Amino acid sequence: MNSLEIGVVVEVNGFVSKVATFDDANHATFIHNGELIKNVSVNSFVIISQGFIKIIAKVNSESFWDNLNSAKGYNLDNRFSKNSIKRLIEIQTIGYIKNGEFISGASFLPMIGNFCNIPTNEEINQIFINNYISEDNSFTISIGKSLNENNGISLPINSFFASHIGVFGNTGSGKSNTLHKLYYELFTRNELPNLTTKSSFIVLDFNGEYVHEKSFGINDEEKKKIYNLTSGNTFGDKFPIEFDVFFDDEMLSVLFSATQQTQKPFITRLLKRSKKYNFGSDSLSNWVLALIRYIYTGIPNQNIRDIMVEVLEKHIQGIDQYLINIKNTKVYNGESQYFFHKDWYGDRRWFRFEGDFSQESHEVLLLEEIRNHIINTPLDVLQEFEIRCHLQLVHDLLYGNVAQEHILPLLRRIETRLSKIYNYIEIVEELPEQPFLQIISLRDLNTESKKFLSLIISKMYFDSHKMKQAKESFHLIIDEAHNILSNQSLREQDGWMDYRLELFEEIIKEGRKFGFFLTLASQRPADISPTILSQVHNFFLHKLVNERDLQIIDNSISTLDKVSKSMLPVLAQGVCIISGTALTMPVTVSVDFIDNINLRPQSDTVLLTDLWK
Hints:
Elements: E1 4-13, E2 16-21, E3 29-32, E4 35-38, E5 45-50, E6 53-66, E7 85-98, E8 101-104, E9 115-118, H1 121-128, E10 140-146, E11 152-156, H2 157-161, E12 165-168, H3 175-187, H4 195-198, E13 199-205, E14 224-230, E15 239-242, H5 243-246, H6 249-255, H7 263-277, H8 281-297, H9 302-315, H10 324-328, E16 329-333, E17 337-341, E18 351-353, H11 359-364, H12 367-376, H13 381-399, H14 404-421, E19 425-428, E20 437-444, H15 447-466, E21 473-478, H16 482-485, H17 494-514, E22 516-522, H18 530-534, E23 538-541, H19 547-556, H20 562-567, E24 575-580, E25 587-591, H21 608-612
Parallel strand pairs: 12-22, 12-23, 13-20, 13-21, 14-20, 15-19, 21-22
Antiparallel strand pairs: 1-2, 1-9, 2-7, 3-4, 5-6, 5-9, 6-7, 7-8, 10-11, 10-25, 16-17, 17-18, 23-24, 24-25
Helix pairs in contact: 6-7, 7-13, 8-12, 8-13, 9-13, 13-14, 15-17
């Protein structure tokens, strides 16, 4: 579409020029080639045609010429008529378009007599977005309209989605709609048939805003899976976590808040033994029998024997019937010490456990029956892990490796936290085939579970993706990211916070080279680690009023100019400033609102009058 001429350059003073508009170019809008076009105003762009070069300038201010009065006149006539004044706009040169590419800088300046035009949609996108019409960026998505020019803004897919993205704004500012719109437009592009096979997307949804059937425009169960997780009961979905990822000493030490000096080494010894002999009922039963044999052949200790019995009775249902003889044994304290069973050979005839552990000792303690019962008792891997934790304590007490009072607080935390984890995690040897889009609702998890699950999911997929040889991309979308990316927390230990931040800092620093990209949405950018925020490539900034938020944005985004920064506290709902490496300069956009309530995020403000009718 040809651009609309509105005036001519009448003054040039360095980078600043003045344009006198035509008499018929002073309306608010025009109809040109069948389209409604908004007239230029302050902060709008204009194009100065100079041969094959299009000089780009920005409107700084407006004024008028008075044709009837001179500046030196003493008797001014204020009775203006239709032809007595001429509208002037002051413009500043910011760059030029050559060969379809916008280049910033004042290599070319307007000349008196050059015509001034309103830019077209394509020219507006060329100004804002680097290499907008290059071959690599030929695929774009529509996000909304520029606030000043009212022109459609299309974002190049390569420049935006192959980057880390930040969507920030106060509650009710429209950030959820922007996040949804961004990926809704991507997923509904029919020109990208391999999107669902070459890329994976996971949404960590802290508030359950995206769990409805048609979210992101996809309602095909083969392409999208929604997990509604809960830590309060067993009725919710369970998310699959790989065995080796969960049973990692660093991960478990963080999960169970293990102390560095005693409790973390305890977990490390447990995992080393469990991985050496493998998990499973056969391995578990062998370890139980080995510990019982050591209890009866080493230095007699009835306290350790009682701990062993308590562990088995508590965690293996129905085994108490086979522990009767073990509980009936006592310690003889004479010249020598040993366990004995008082009535094994009849009244007042003892069976002594001295020296080697004989076959008869095996029969006295019913060890074969205990083994068979453990093998036949169904235990999932988390239940078995809990039992192994208690057996490791028995083992360490027998060998004198630990003090019981140092480990018991850890075992209580393990028991408490595993009782929650049972409800929302499923441990698998290998991940099943998964759809390209997974939405994980964390709304019904407690705070501790939200942080842990977000951490282990992020680590699992990042480590897995780094090992892939094929060219694929992975996109992790975190809504309300301040919940897990904060560098300040009064409720967690320093070890947990350090491990969490180190992981996400590694992802955001190194993820790009592996094709692993983050999209973060948050109400409070100031609560997010500055290191993480500084590595975000492209930003969608909605209304922000908190001074700390504005300050961290100012420090983190080098591409945001002073005018855009000053607008942040007064942006209307649904309006955002887009800035970053994919853009030549910031653009203020009114993001398209999705009218269909079945598609858009479930984050609408409640209408109290409708509620109260």
